[in-house]
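Recap slide: Succinate dehydrogenase/fumarate reductase iron-sulfur subunit, sequence and predicted structure.
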Amino acid sequence: MNTKQNLNLTLKIWRQKNNRTKGRFEIYKISDVSTESSFLEMMDMLNANLIDQNLEPIAFDHDCREGICGMCSLYINGRAHGPDTGIATCQLHMRMFHDGQTIVIEPFRSTAFPVIKDLIVDRSSFDRIMAAGGFISVNTSGNTLDANSILVDKEDADKAMDAAACISGGACVACCPNGAAMLFVGAKVSHLALLPQGKVEAKRRVLNMVKAMDDEGFGNCSVIGACEVECPKHISLDNIARMNREYMSAWLDK
């Protein structure tokens, strides 16, 4: 059975020239949007209409459009990435909406994510946290051991893989009332702390990454759990607990 429909929608979109100017919501009408199109394709349609009218298109982030890169950071009708779960905005389809609906589209809101323009925010704070310790220092001169020669417990390998699924999109920060980044940092710390290659620098890593997180102005975690619910990859709160244990152990050994 063909369930394809065309929607007529009202879009209430945040417009802001840069982080030094005041932003505002503007209303746009769009018609004949196929329910088979993605949310970003709908935004492309809107921008094509604006360009045809010699109006400035809406700036929004996107790259892979496959749920991998984490660039498509939109807050849609009060939820990070919109009304579906376990997806990034690029994987959201217009069948999740109904004809005549008003859709409110905002950038991710966080002191640590200043607005660049319209719906694009600067998430380079995540990059600086990663630069503080989210890596393994190894000699890559050709003398490295084959990965299979280092045995890893299956349970630890699975947990490390689950943590490594984090795409650094920032939905955890956007939906947290405190603007905390602990799910992101917890995932990055856990990924490496669970593997033998990451244990050498584990203590220095967690101390440096947590300090960088605090320096960037992210809030504190109060275990509300919205981050886990809205994360496109369902990163578990267990990673925050693991990071706290790693941090306490490293702090006591200072």
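The longest strand covers residues 24-34.
The two ends are 65 Å apart (CA to CA).
(End of recap.)
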